[in-house]
Design goal:
By secondary structure, this protein is an alpha/beta fold. The chain is 49% helix and 12% strand. The strands form 4 sheets. Strands 3-4-2-1-5-6-8-7 form an 8-stranded mixed β-sheet. Strands 9-10 form a two-stranded antiparallel sheet. Strands 11-14 form a two-stranded parallel ribbon.
């Protein structure tokens, strides 16, 4: 996989900030796509995982039901482990036969043939195991034959139903990845034809982006429009969901490919380099495939598929638990704010969220109402007269951030992630995204209440470019190395960092 050193990228100012101010004008065709309603899509990886779990559960339930009805439930200590081991082996065999893939779910003969062959092999192995371990007297032949026969029928019916469902979802576009191509001309035309032949069921192609404006890059390629330049793609992907970017450039165009990737790495999308025109031939393991189209994996979205579900569950469980446990603290804080100064308890502020979209976050009000700075154009400094007495304490202790737990429940924030910054926040009189041009790469994941930067002391005032660069560097490290265990570690360390590393929080 292609790697850009996040720290070096920030230091070298390689990532453009197109769309930072929202002034980029897209082409008429691009605007039409942006304005169109977006249908929800499903993750193929998650579907495959769920199918495996359901199939295993059905087989295990069937095996146990036959055992209960015929053997009478007198030998649970033997049959239950045998059933579970057989179902596990069946899942391994089904995967070895490559039957758990979205493309194979769409066909009937090949799918059922492989499944029945794998299921038959499982029964053969079970019979041989009983013989070799001298346990054949303990295994009921009626149970074994009944489970094999009824299991085969069950698998055929299940796979037929699955095929109908997958084909319906495919026809509805729910399994297609929203895709654009970077590049143009003959290379892109050949790529589009290859997609039509081998990956049309998995890819919904919108058009092309290319920086060239000469005859090598016509306004339409194989019926698909040129939507703009590569810099326009950054704004386009922020205004409408894009899952996949396919780069249609030869491997020999290393300089062009690298320059393009350094622009697009700020986006939370999968980036693939097409290998269909390359004269070099690598082993099949060097490629991944879009249908039958070979590609090189250049970049992956940081959190996707099952990881996205894990993080969603982590956020919701932690947020609900924290709201319950910390409700007395939040209630006391609200009362203290009301007694200390006039104005509302909560302060709302628009900040940059996932993929540079706008979110409105909640905080306990820490400033006098008539001195509030909603845009955060002026950083809060030590002894700032705008901050109330209660405000100084809740800012120092980060209690003012607790209402953001409700932002987590609304799906706008995560518990852990890069902190969302105010729109007009500045360092050395420069907006953050002007001071650090790789800044928007930190928005490839949802912002969080706490993060890797915060537990390392980079919280509070960011009055210099170096401070904001340190925050961004830590945020990019978190994104590149994310895991649910890292989230748990950051959450565990947050209370300690509030007391030991709060010198910059005013």
């Amino acid at each position: 996989m292609f790697r850009i050193d996040p720290k070096q990228a920030v230091l070298d100012h390689v990532a453009g900030n197109a769309g930072a101010s929202g002034t980029v004008t897209l082409s008429t065709e691009a605007e039409r796509i942006v304005a169109a309603p977006v249908e929800p899509t499903y993750s193929g990886t998650v579907i495959v995982g769920i199918v495996q779990a359901i199939e295993a559960l059905l087989l295990a339930t069937l095996g146990y039901a036959i055992y209960e009805s015929y053997v009478g439930g007198t030998e649970d200590g033997f049959y239950i482990p045998v059933i579970l081991a057989s179902v596990l082996l069946a899942n391994v065999m089904f995967n070895a036969a490559r039957t758990h893939r979205i493309p194979i779910y769409r066909v009937f003969v090949s799918q059922t043939g492989r499944v029945l062959a794998a299921w038959s092999l499982v029964m053969v192995i079970l019979s041989m195991g009983a013989f070799l371990f001298k346990a054949s007297d303990m295994v009921s032949r009626v149970w074994l034959v009944s489970w094999f026969a009824s299991g085969a029928v069950l698998l055929v019916v299940f796979r037929l139903s699955l095929r109908a469902l997958i084909n319906q979802w495919t026809a509805d576009g729910k399994l297609k990845r929203r895709t654009v191509i970077v590049g143009g001309g003959k290379d892109a035309e050949v790529l589009i034809e290859a997609i039509r032949k081998g990956a049309d069921s998995d890819i919904r192609l919108f058009g092309l982006f290319d920086d060239r404006i000469d005859v090598r890059s016509p306004e339409s390629v194989a019926g698909y429009p040129k939507l703009g330049k590569v810099a326009d793609l950054i704004e386009f992907a922020r205004r409408t969901p894009i899952d996949l970017v396919i780069v249609s450039m030869p491997l020999s165009a290393e300089t062009r490919v690298l320059a393009m990737l350094k622009q697009l790495w700020v986006l939370p999308v999968d980036i693939r380099l097409s290998a269909h025109m390359s004269k070099l031939r690598f082993t099949s393991k060097a490629y991944s495939y879009l249908g039958n189209v070979p590609v090189f994996d250049m970049a992956d979205r940081p959190i996707s598929d099952w990881n996205l579900i894990l993080k969603w569950l982590f956020d919701k469980v932690v947020a609900l638990f924290a709201i319950v446990v910390l409700s007395p603290v939040m209630l006391a804080t609200a009362i203290a704010i009301k007694l200390d100064s006039k104005g509302p308890v909560l302060f709302k502020q628009k900040r940059h969220g996932f993929n540079n979209t706008m979110v409105e976050i909640y905080k306990f009000r820490s400033m006098y109402t008539d001195k509030s700075d909603a845009a955060a154009a002026t950083l809060v400094t030590k002894g700032d007269p705008r901050v109330t007495k209660v405000g100084r304490f809740i800012r120092k202790s980060s209690i003012d951030e607790l209402p953001q737990l409700f932002n987590v429940l609304k799906g706008q924030l995560s518990i852990v992630g890069p902190r969302p910054h105010a729109m007009q926040a500045k360092a050395d009189n420069q907006l953050y995204y002007e001071a650090v041009e790789g800044y928007f790469a930190r928005h490839k994941v949802k912002p969080g209440i706490t993060g890797w930067a915060q537990i390392h002391g980079w919280r509070g005032e960011t009055d210099t470019v170096d401070k904001i660069m340190q925050r961004v560097n830590h945020d990019l490290y978190y994104i590149e190395n994310w895991s649910i265990l890292l989230d748990a570690y950051i959450l565990f360390m947050t209370p300690f960092s509030l007391f030991s590393k709060s010198e910059n929080a005013y």
